[in-house]
Amino acid sequence: MYRTHTCGELRLANQGTTLTLAGWVQTVRKFGAITFVDLRDRYGITQLLFGESLQAQLDAQPLGREFVLQVSGVVQERSNKNPGLPTGEIELVVQSFVILNASAVPPFTIQDDTDGGDDLRMKYRFLDLRRNAVKKNLELRYAVNRSVRNYLHENAFMDIETPFLIKSTPEGARDFVVPSRMNPGQFYALPQSPQTFKQLLMVSGYDRYYQIVKCFRDEDLRADRQPEFTQIDCEMCFVEQEDILNMFEGLVKRVFKDVKNIEYSEAVQRMTWEDAMWQYGNDKPDIRFGMKLSNLKSAFRKSGQLLATGELINGAGFGVFDNAETVLAIAVPGCAEYSRKQTDELTDWVKRPQIGMQGLVFIKCNADGTYKSSVDKFYAEERLKAIADSAGAVAGDLVLILAGREEKTRKALSDLRLEMGKRLGLRKDNEFKLLWVLDFPLFEYAEEENRWVARHHPFTSPKPDQIDTMINNNPVIEQAAEYLAHPYANIKANAYDMVLNGNEIGGGSIRIFQRPLQEKMFAALGMTPEEYNHKFGFLLGAFEYGAPPHGGIAFGFDRLCSILGGSESIRDFIAVMLDAPSTIDAKQFDELQIQLNLKP
Amino acid sequence: MYRTHTCGELRLANQGTTLTLAGWVQTVRKFGAITFVDLRDRYGITQLLFGESLQAQLDAQPLGREFVLQVSGVVQERSNKNPGLPTGEIELVVQSFVILNASAVPPFTIQDDTDGGDDLRMKYRFLDLRRNAVKKNLELRYAVNRSVRNYLHENAFMDIETPFLIKSTPEGARDFVVPSRMNPGQFYALPQSPQTFKQLLMVSGYDRYYQIVKCFRDEDLRADRQPEFTQIDCEMCFVEQEDILNMFEGLVKRVFKDVKNIEYSEAVQRMTWEDAMWQYGNDKPDIRFGMKLSNLKSAFRKSGQLLATGELINGAGFGVFDNAETVLAIAVPGCAEYSRKQTDELTDWVKRPQIGMQGLVFIKCNADGTYKSSVDKFYAEERLKAIADSAGAVAGDLVLILAGREEKTRKALSDLRLEMGKRLGLRKDNEFKLLWVLDFPLFEYAEEENRWVARHHPFTSPKPDQIDTMINNNPVIEQAAEYLAHPYANIKANAYDMVLNGNEIGGGSIRIFQRPLQEKMFAALGMTPEEYNHKFGFLLGAFEYGAPPHGGIAFGFDRLCSILGGSESIRDFIAVMLDAPSTIDAKQFDELQIQLNLKP
User: For the CA atoms of A286, A292, A294, A300, what is the dihedral angle to 10 degrees?
Assistant: First the structure.
């Protein structure tokens, strides 16, 4: 070893010891004939003191930032202690040193508050990774990894590797494909998830499987979507939904404890998908704060019923509300005194293209019991009060109301709720609230094709008491306008999402394990027997040989880490150092027997 | 849960308990009005007793092999105990049962001694995976995984994920490539190893990195080569070779302890590459037994010297030896009494195409002190004795001698040695012998191109005292015939292989960390600055900003598991379920902007 100790471990107890350190020069401070250097490694920073006898050598070989140094010397107590540093009570009096490698002047400072912009830090990612802030993120990621593995091991899960070079079965996102040199004209695909493989492992009786595994989706890039991403992928035999919920809220609680030292002792809240949509306009609600939606008028069917028909607002002559499919409100606490400028700014906020609403209606619930609204001329004060009451507003609140098409309006008010929560400081970084969202619809309606698509994926089971409904009905939708009346529209999935602070961190389902039901599902999605046998014949075949009931879940590892680390950017938690893709050479094309076919 | 207990946990202490199990029907045995069923899950087998009251239900719903069953009942002591089974003292008296899923008759029996052939078992791999023998392999693999992670964690290594969609830099094996839809005409490559990424992580100061990670090589398939394989990949900062050897023999010893309960307390033997080649004809010798090679005549240069010039054998008129570049011998203990038939069979063995020698010479060292040889007419008995002595033979031994071209002969005699070791029972399954092979040549000579290639990879450092030799000499080989006289021919690598029972299980090196030396290496391999900057510019650039000394190792995880599991087939330790590659559809070609260019 080039060192006897790390830069993070020396304390007063080491006083008088002669030892050797190696690391990077963080700073050089020269005071007359004495030079102080902060030496950094992964474990910490130690102050080095170069006395007068070394100055000639230092003059001949000047140290610069990020030089790699090996130093030997004696530990002594500092006169000027730094209580902010674990090694702040000591310094190393250097007796000899060797420059192991020099460094060019780095393009930005290797500090928490660096002077490097995003692009520069990405270009020199290997230097960015030296910064303490980034290092802490990767350390947190490893801590989550370790915690997850320990918990799953203790619960009899086995890490079993599944293949990466598989068959292309695009269903949902696009596959990345890999030309096979050994089988010209044929391609492998990279897995979007190990879904079918883990199900086969259950059929093989492995009982409890997990993997922390790379998955691939050829999607257009977004900040929170990478073409490759990591899942914590799990599957269990002989379980019902309740077993999965218990096992995996245990997992997340264990991670909280191990990584954040948070005892999450309360039960994880549960909410149906319908309640989430009804109360929060969103299937992954942030329940750190209230401000629930009030449904003044809605086309959303809850338990198959139209619950908000608009009595409170219809017929007052306000066409925007009268003609709207949906009118929804939230009561923002303590904002009744917003100025005209402030309410105008909120109106502009909802009119931005990302939200895309036409306008915003507000009611101020004044402290004196009066009500003031942007639609005063249509609604008398007592009607305004009734509307505000129905939104759960109290004196001092500001009621915000959006109207328009169902889906868009619900999403817009959900976004506005989150924005107001953020502005009011209700979404606290150090508060973590878990939520299970349950009872999703099994199918979604694809308007363009007038057919059903799987909301989760085609392997998700319906609720046990709805299997007969699924088997005994024809999935074909005879009349597009009446699709909500089709029995399939009300089938609920045996599926669950885990939500943390408004982010979906995991999702899964109890799987179909009977061949006839799986075939019915494929048929419901519009596949012919030829198609589903070509794509999924291996799974259907396996279901004939004693497939057990099973279910599982997959967590987005990157996102889980970023939320625990208090960041919105997944990239901060990946050691990305990308210099790809690039061209390949003629020999590679020749061997693969493919060529480019670029569009003009 | 569909069960309260597993099929592996019930003991006499559970007697009288009412409980529920779920699993697969292993066997059904009917005795009059009573039926015994062995129920199997991952954890074991429990005997079920179906009494008279259930026979009507059983008749209506007959159980078959591999049916999935849920049973409730009471544990009772068996009258007929099975001491071979952990659950053999009890049985479950069934009170009620549910068939959770039926099974077609499996195409082979789910037993250790199955009646299924290789092809059938591969076709129905999901059923093969149910067999105890295969399950034990995957359990062993997970145990190795867990043990490795625990050891590395305790030694401050961090699991850091590196990217899978990278830049193609073919150097050695072929890359698998992935067309990029977002960047038409460009391709990603799948990593052959995370080599450059882990080096960048060292430059970034992560100090100790590891990953158990999939790697990809587009090679022609062999039994022990899969297109995707798993490495235990490790790298450390501020280390010399000695540190790596100590750390990673510690790792393998820990795996022995955790997985095989073997205390490997002795020091791991070390051997130079030259000694391995000289004494065993092989750079990964099986040192569980002796039978070392005797070099009667050899072109192999040990420490730059020709050590075996052939005095003992030359000039006797035996042209095969006189004209041979190389003559090598082994002394096989106790085989002097081999019959003519047996020596003929050995001659045939070395003449097989896989070995490809012209013939085999033997000397029998008889118990009475006489010598008998297939070349009696050229060599007098005392000369035979001298040859046999030089091969270390004693009375009763059979000396086997091969002659021919250096490389081929050395490999052939190495193979013959292993074969004889196997036949004599000297290669014991339950004996594990580790060996470090050190001091490999840094370069190999590529005859066709008259240039150097990297024996390990281009990032391997020469021995510290040979860096100057490398820097200060022109790598160009002026005269092909004299390549051995080139200073580069004698440069040794700071590299090491770990060998277990004659198999290379891991290999690595201390890396180059100085830009000028790395550039010299690329130049030595025949790359122009344009080429190496295009392929490895990111690494060279990183070396300018304070790269620390570092080194690492990678273990072949699949092979390590197969050796520990006592199998020669890596496939037995992978949950392969391959149904790939396959064709892709026109839409995929269109989006990727590529087309086939199949050769006629």
Answer: 30
The pair of structure tokens assigned to B495 is 């590299």
Which among B111, B181, B527, B545 is the top mutation candidate for probing chain A, defined by the most A β-carbons within 10 Å of its own β-carbon? B545
| Residue A178 in contact with partner chain B when CB distance is under 8 A | yes
Choose among B495, B491, B493, B454: nearest CA to B473: B491
Same domain, A540 and A559: no
3-state DSSP assignment of residue A378: coil
- In this structure, is residue B300 part of a structural domain? yes
At a CB cut-off of 8 Å and minimum separation 6, what does B513 contact? A101, B461, B543, B547, B548, B549, B550
| Cβ of residue B542 closer than 8 Å to a chain A Cβ | yes
pLDDT digits (tens, 9 = 90+) for B133-173: 999 999 999 999 999 999 999 999 999 999 999 988 766 68
Lowest pLDDT segment from A59-68, A504-513, B563-572:
B563-572
What secondary structure does DSSP assign to A321-334, as a single string?
A: HHH-SEEEEEEETT
How many residues would you count in chain A? 600
Question: Which residue range(s) make up the domain with A24?
Answer: 12-101
CB-nearest to B100 from A190, A220, A549 is A549
- pLDDT band at residue A218 using 50, 70 and 90 as cut-offs: confident
Stated as kind and residue range, the H or E segment containing B74 is strand B68-77
The domain boundary, picked from B101, B126, B155, lies at: B101
Alpha-carbon distances, residue B280 vs A520, B277, B290, B408 (angstroms): 63, 5, 9, 13
CB–CB contact B164 A22 (8 Å): no
Considering the domain architecture, whether residues B450 and B408 belong to the same structural domain is answered as: no
Same domain membership, residue A576 and residue A481 = no
Task: Name the residue among B145, B179, B588 with its Cβ closest to that of A159.
Answer: B145
CATH of the domain at B397: 3.30.1360.30
% of chain A surpassing 70 pLDDT = 98
Q: Are residues A141 and A266 in the same domain?
A: yes
B139: distance to nearest CA of chain A, Å? Answer: 8
- Do A191 and A66 belong to one domain? no
Residue B464 lies in a domain: yes
A31 and A95: one domain? yes
| B300, B411 contact by CB (below 8 A) | no
Interface with chain A: mutation pick from B181, B188, B540, highest number of A CBs within 10 Å: B188
Domain count, chain A: 4
- Give the model confidence (pLDDT) of B55-85 as tens digits: 999 999 999 999 999 999 999 999 999 999 9
CB atoms within 10 A of CB B226: 20
Q: Is residue A419 part of a domain?
A: yes
Overall average pLDDT of the B486-491 stretch: 92
Cβ neighbours for B190, distance < 8 A, ≥ 6 positions apart: A164, A178, B164, B165, B166, B175, B176, B177, B178, B216
Rounded percentage of chain A residues whose pLDDT exceeds 90: 83
Which CATH number does the domain housing residue B23 bear? 2.40.50.140
* CATH number (domain holding residue B171): 3.30.930.10
Q: Same domain for B225 and B254? A: yes
* Residue the block writes with tokens 């005892």: A263
Mean predicted lDDT score pLDDT of chain B: 94
ipTM of the complex: 0.94
DSSP A368: T
Q: Is residue A81 part of a domain?
A: yes
B142 and B83 in a common domain: no
> A599 pLDDT exceeds 90?
no
Top pLDDT among A435 and A185 is at A435
| Distance, CA of B61 to CA of B70 (rounded, Å) | 14
Q: Cα–Cα distance between B104 and B106 in angstroms, integer?
A: 6
